[in-house]
Amino acid sequence: MTVVEIPGSKSVTARALFLAAAAEGTTRLVRPLHSDDTEGFAEGLAGLGYRVTADGADWVIEGRPQGPANDADVYCRDGATTSRFLPALAAAGYGEFRFDASAQMRRRPLGPLTEALRELGVELVHEEQEGHHPLRIRAKGVRGGELTLDAGLSSQYLTALLLLGPLTEEGLRITVTDLVSAPYVEITLAMMRSFGVQVRREGKVFVVPPGGYTAVDYPVEPDASTASYVFAAAALTGREVTVPGLGRDALQGDLRFVDVLERMGATVRIGADAVTVTGAEGGRLRGLTVTMRDISDTMPTLAAIAPFADAPVRIEDVYNTRVKECDRLEACAENLRRQGIAVETGRDWIEIRPGTPRAAEIATHGDHRIVMSFAVAGLRTPGTTFDDPGCVRKTFPAFHQEFARLRAAWGV
Predict the structure, then answer these.
(1) pLDDT band at 69 (very low <50, low <70, confident <90, very high)
(2) What gap in Å lies between CA 66 and CA 167, rounded to an integer?
(3) Residue 215 and residue 24 in contact, taking contact as beta carbons nearer than 8 Å
(4) Which residues are tagged catalytic?
(5) Global confidence as pTM
(6) Angle at which helices 156-164 and 80-91 pack, to 10 degrees?
(7) Distance between CA atoms of 300 and 304, rounded to whole angstroms?
(8) How would you classify residue 181: left for phi > 0, otherwise alpha for psi between -120 and 50, otherwise beta?
(9) Per-residue pLDDT tens for 123-168?
């Protein structure tokens, strides 16, 4: 059995940074993810006047319930959570704040969130393209109230508003008309409870009370999306791998990717504090049709290994993957075709035929998940290379070194 330690969750780390900054008191984040995205988030907090210090591998954050300390110009890098959560945090304060991001992040939609903030009376302007960064906010606190939100492109719009709710004068009542990646919202609600806020849910309505947050020491669990790569590697090679720190009570919905692998023939054991995946003999995989709306960050992982299944793999209800770091659905199709695999796509689906992928240079489009997914498939396709292997720094800077160690341990 091979044991692989997975870095902390990006999703949990980002939410914890927001909550710690907004809380009364000092919070210690234990084993947070250190990557370009999370360091960009911490840097953005520092620019807004929050004190974030490193203590070994931990981060210590002094909360400012009153909001940002000064006017600021914040660069969000490639981080979607940074780009969406920090404007909501700034809106609760007082001052003028400008947010900008990388060209990749500028292309990703922000409109549903900023329209909701406008509905709450926040004065803001998109300086170039409406609904996209760069964004300028003239903040004077948020009274709160009722609003309607379409979170069909990203659950992060809803998370940003949920996190904002306790910082408003009256709280928020949010009616959601559409929601993708719902398990990420459950992460948010569970973490808010840890920081002292109980959100009431009434069907499609979320009721967030005012009153603020209370600081805690908060351990960050390993990243389930990142774990999908080693789980898929075990399934693809017929090996066994255990990831400690994730278990039956894990917050992250992306752990459900192991259910997909189980349907494909792998054996899965989920314990109290570890998950073990054992591939079928010879790495045999069964074809399937699967809806991945709620775990869409793992869609590229499945797409990359799909050619090795004994029947077509069809992945449905993943339109939101078209508005990630790149159009992931088309990026997967493009790279599979480069490898000689027959692929069909539609608005929100991809179907991949069985085949033997040939070695090719993978077009990463600067997307960390494209690299890591096709690196897994590369275990059975020697000669696979990448035009930008370093973009994994976004969430897992040491991925290539750790994956090389895994290959060496398995002799593949």
Answers:
(1) confident
(2) 8
(3) yes
(4) 297
(5) 0.96
(6) 30
(7) 6
(8) left
(9) 999 999 999 999 999 999 999 999 999 999 999 999 999 999 999 9
